[in-house]
Q: What sequence folds into this?
């Protein structure tokens, strides 16, 4: 399935390229430094901009099966293979506790991704990327945070949050605590600066729209990977990829790669795009 090709549209060669390895060769490890880590994110979206819809019982939001697909998932894992650390949300750990999460944090443990786990070791990276969890509410089940004993995990909060509560939570879970930003919420720029100080050079945000908005406001997202499945989903309750305060100084996206994938989602096709973020002075 991964070996079926995509067609390269940008740069406009029209060549067939194997999906397998398409993003692993992006060289993301070399783009950042501890002084200025390289920060990237990735979404699969419908043409009408939905990244998540309510689950059938409305208990949570999930990536709709009409757009989620194994070929995009492979690319998601290839991006994760190049990360020193993942940024995720408290929501992920709440869903993990109830079994409603999409999957284990990448890099996935299955045979499909054995090459990626091996690749990390060959590159001299840790076996798995570390993890930073953003939360305002501090409503995170301790047991869910203990599910990754072989990685360094951190809870990130704003300095205006309840420090004692956060300390109790991180102590109980045996994880680290980061403070980034002076208010209740985590702010993007101080978060990335702190992660650089901890030695991380490539940072992959795998959370949803509020975390992306935090990174865009802080002008620290360097690259957006976006797979657009050629489907329209509608719905009145949905997530799109950026939610939060208006970006009064809009971010410009410069396309750096575009591929047509005629083999997913099942019965449709998709565009696989990447964009460099340009921020106003
Ligand atoms: N289609 C795709 O490619 C894709 C990708 C990613 C996610 N999704 C979907 O999108 C939906 C939403 O994902 P999500 O809930 O992870 O996204 P999110 O909106 O980025 O994060 C939600 C939670 O993260 C914490 N948070 C976010 N920004 C924060 C900040 N600046 N400071 C402190 N805490 C902050 C808050 O936790 P507290 O509630 O604890 O305060 C918040 O409720 C999910 O259904 C997910 O499956 C889809």
A:
């Amino acid at each position: 399935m991964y070996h079926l090709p995509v067609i390269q549209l940008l740069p406009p060669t029209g060549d067939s390229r194997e999906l397998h390895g398409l993003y692993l060769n992006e060289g993301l490890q070399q783009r950042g430094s501890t002084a200025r880590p390289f920060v990237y994110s990735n979404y699969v979206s419908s043409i009408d901009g939905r990244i998540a819809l309510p689950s059938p019982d409305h208990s949570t939001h999930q990536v709709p099966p009409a757009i989620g697909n194994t070929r995009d998932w492979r690319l998601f894992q290839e991006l994760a293979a190049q990360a020193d650390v993942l940024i995720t949300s408290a929501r992920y750990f709440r869903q993990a506790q109830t079994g409603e999460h999409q999957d284990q944090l990448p890099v996935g443990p299955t045979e499909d991704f054995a090459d990626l786990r091996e690749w990390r070791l060959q590159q001299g990276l840790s076996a798995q990327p570390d993890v930073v969890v953003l939360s305002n509410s501090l409503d995170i089940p301790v047991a869910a945070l203990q599910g990754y004993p072989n990685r360094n995990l951190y809870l990130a909060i704003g300095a205006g949050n309840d420090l004692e509560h956060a300390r109790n939570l991180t102590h109980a879970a045996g994880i680290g605590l980061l403070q980034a930003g002076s208010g209740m919420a985590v702010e993007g720029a101080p978060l990335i600066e702190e992660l650089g100080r901890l030695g991380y050079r490539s940072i992959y945000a795998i959370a949803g729209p509020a975390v992306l908005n935090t990174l865009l406001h802080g002008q620290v997202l360097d690259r957006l990977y976006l797979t657009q499945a050629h489907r329209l989903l509608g719905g009145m309750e949905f997530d799109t990829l950026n939610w939060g305060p208006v970006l009064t100084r809009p971010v410009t996206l410069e396309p750096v790669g575009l591929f047509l994938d005629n083999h997913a989602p099942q019965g449709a096709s998709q565009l696989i795009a990447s964009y460099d973020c340009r921020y106003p002075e």
Notes: Residues 43-44, 51-52, 61-63, 89-92, 102, 134-137, 139, 185-186, 207-211, 214, 239 surround NAP (CB under 6 Å). The CA atoms of residues 181 and 207 lie 19 Å apart. DSSP finds seven helices and 13 strands in the chain. The domain at 9-22+32-278 is CATH 3.40.430.10 (Dihydrofolate Reductase, subunit A).
